[in-house]
Amino acid sequence: MLAILAVLTRELLWLSASGIFLSSLDDMAVDALWLGRFAFRRPAPLPPAPAEPGRFALIVPAWDESAVIGAMLARLCGTISDDRMRVFVGVYANDPATLAAVEAVADPRVRAVPTGTPGPTTKADCLNHLWRGVLKQEAATGERFKAVVLHDAEDVVDPASLDLYDRWIPALAMVQVPVLPIQDPATRWVSGHYCDEFAQAHAKDMQVRGLLGAPVPSAGVGTAIDRDVLARLAGPGNAPFDAASLTEDYEMGHRVHALGLQARMVRAHADGRLVATRAYFPSTIETAVRQKSRWLAGIALSGWDRLGWSGGLATRWMLLRDRKGMFTAAVAMLGYVAAILLLAQLALRAWVSARTGAPLPPLLGPADSALPGFLALNAGLLMWRLGLRAGFTGRAYGWREGLWAIPRALMANAINFLAALRAMERYRAALDSGGAPAWGKTDHRFPDADVEVARG
Q1: pLDDT digits (tens, 9 = 90+) for 354-374
Q2: How confident is the model over 386-437, as pLDDT tens digits?
Q3: Which of 96, 108, 192, 345 is the most exposed place for a label (fewest CB within 10 A)?
Q4: Which of 25, 18, 26 is closest to 319 using CA atoms?
Q5: What is the rounded distance in angstroms from the CA atom of residue 93 to the CA atom of residue 4?
Q6: In sequence order, what E strands does 29-99 have?
Q7: How many CA atoms lie within 13 Å of 196's alpha carbon, on the beta-carbon side?
Q8: Measured between alpha carbons, how far is 317 from 222 in angstroms, rounded to an integer?
Q9: Could you tell me the residue ranges of all domains in the chain?
Q10: Gap between the Cα atoms of 277 and 176, Å rounded
């Protein structure tokens, strides 16, 4: 029994350690680029403000959002008094509560845009109706918008974001500001892992993408797209968002890049805070798995079918990073299984030694085995990755939350593994049905006025 367990443990350790090492090499390459270009340099100055401020259309798809849309719009209109902003909210006839909440805001800059079909349809379908609503507004007033800004019904929109978009567009076809999940101390383990992931991805990974000239995907919120570029993407059917996609926001960045245009994640500060979109994220394992399974199914699985592996070396590298989530989730779980077997082997060896007193072979194989050294190397890489993760979280949320990021990586791995399993089910179901993907939205919350959000 001990011999069988020893062989199984060693094989699993080799397999999981090899997978983790390969993924770590990929991550270390990104880390090196970030360290060399961004970590120790001051941010470049912003472009000058245009002589004449541009006008912006904020579009917000809203199905079953009566619990949050009123508060979101009230805060948005209260913090941004500029008349150059117009807000278009997509509503459905069979969702009168959301329509009533939108109309109750009673701000002339806010307009409800009916979809014309019962909901829910898809998020992309709702966004396409909103785009057509923007065009109707332009035709009615004779005024043209400079850019269209994507937001969700639960977003805390940064009042400085419009000025940022105005400075960068049209030099950039698409501008993405960071997303900072709001801390929820009551659900620190689940919702907190989003803080860790977004703090690192939007401060490091997206910066490296821009440096390499690779596509910068839209996060679906806090994204401003040049109005004329969106019109090019819309085509003759006036549908810039692909209703057949599970992740139409992610693909938008690739489509902008395919036009030969530039997009960027722009990080800037105003009044001592990072200009970013803030929002609550799922606070239970079930809702987190549901949301992340949609992301994985759309990016790692159907995205492979839809986008393929086209583009230059940098683009293909970033596609590989986007799609390796399925692989890393499985490898992480395999590593946990190997660790459990190793502990079981240690317990069994102690029991055998106590009973027989006989000498036992080395725990990890022959004395000349390379496995111990390989595991030590992986341990060092893991410490680097966890330290970096804690550093980015600490910079955005404070050092205490940064320390929480280290044990919280276990929760992140578990959620990502469960999401990967469900993503495969969703992908298979989508292939079997052949229909448009369902709007897999989650219940949303909007922060109270006294909730402190990360300053970044």
Answers
A1: 777 766 766 776 766 889 899
A2: 999 999 999 999 999 999 999 999 999 999 999 999 999 988 888 887 765 6
A3: 108
A4: 26
A5: 64
A6: 56-61, 85-91
A7: 27
A8: 25
A9: 1-456
A10: 10
* 279 in Cβ contact with 152 (< 8 Å): yes
Q: Which CATH architecture has domain 1-456?
A: Alpha-Beta Complex (3.90)
* Contact assessment for residue 271 and residue 264, using Cβ atoms and an 8 Å cutoff: no
pLDDT band at residue 127, thresholds of 50, 70 and 90?
very high
Token pair listed for 211: 């440096």
Using a 10 angstrom Cβ sphere, with 0-12 exposed, 13-18 middle and 19 or more buried, the burial of residue 161 is: buried
CA angle, 326 as apex, 63 and 425 as ends, to 5°?
A: 55
User: In which band, very low, low, confident or very high, does the pLDDT at 13 lie, cut at 50, 70 and 90?
Assistant: very high
Q: What is the pLDDT of residues 35-68, one digit of tens each?
A: 999 999 888 899 999 999 999 999 999 999 999 9
Which structure tokens are listed for 428? 């298979």
The answer to whether 223 and 176 have CB atoms below 8 angstroms apart is yes
Q: Is 166 helix (H, G, I), strand (E, B) or coil?
A: helix
Q: How far apart are the first and last CA of the chain?
A: 53
